[in-house]
Amino acid sequence: MLVLINLSSLTLFISILTCNHGSHIQAHSNFIYAGCSQDKYQPNSPYETNLNSLLSSIVSSSSLTLYNFFAIGNATTETPPDSAAYGLYQCRGDLKSRDCSTCIAGLISEIALLCPYTNGASLQLDGCFVRYEKTDFLGKLDDGLRYKKCSVSGGDGGGEFMRRRDDVLADLQGAVGFRVSATGAVEGYAQCLGDLAAADCSACLAEAVMKVKSLCGAAAAGDVFLAQCYVRYWESGYYDSSSEGLDGIRTLDFWLGFRVFNYALHPILTINLILD
């Protein structure tokens, strides 16, 4: 079934759910979400030229460093003032440069499919993140919720699970950059964007931890992605290593279709999709 939605001035966030919740931390190609602006640019426009240059710079830089940001066309009088492109990328803190580059290149290659001709997009895989916009968002604080997912099942062990879960989340809240934590049967990791100051990172992670607790309750696994940081936790043994990566999702979901599982509107539209 094809789902068509037309909402002006809102951002469409599409969350594709595979049959299980996620994969081991070593995975980096599993799809998390894509957010596409409703405004589009014209093909062969000055903005498209700058955007292509931006995306090319992101791919090249990802083989050298796990985080970088770019502004293309904002310091020249030769192009219209509204044609500048701003963007950044980040890879998960435990990835090697080779894996970061592979993750980013794969993600960039899907933009035309996921967000064709859109002025802005945010795309998140397990291992990497890319965002670009027509307006300058670089360095501006944003703790808006982008994506959340909670397991249907609750954690085993009742109060013991909750205590260990809260210990892991408390440890992750103190991260500066990227941190992995484990206590007993509960594991997790968290990360802030590379340009956040330590105090801003702490504030962002505190908000993410608060949201994952309130939204997921006693769930065995929970993910909360804010605009500039994320927190993920799970009970050991919950994840299944057979999750599909981006290629599998593209083949199954986008070409075979999908059915709507759940949605909520305000102030952004979030749609969770699951394979029939």
Automatic annotation (TrEMBL):
Boundaries of every Gnk2-homologous domain copy: 29-137, 140-238
Native organism taxonomy: Eukaryota, Viridiplantae, Streptophyta, Embryophyta, Tracheophyta
Cellular compartment(s): Cell junction, Plasmodesma; Cell membrane
InterPro entries per the UniProt record, alphabetical: Cell2Cell_Antifungal, GNK2, GNK2_sf
Pfam families: Stress-antifung
Protein name as it appears in the record: Gnk2-homologous domain-containing protein
Topology relative to the membrane: Single-pass type I membrane protein
Signal peptide from the UniProt entry: 1-22
Organism: Rehmannia glutinosa
Record keyword Repeat present: yes
Family: Belongs to the cysteine-rich repeat secretory protein family. Plasmodesmata-located proteins (PDLD) subfamily.
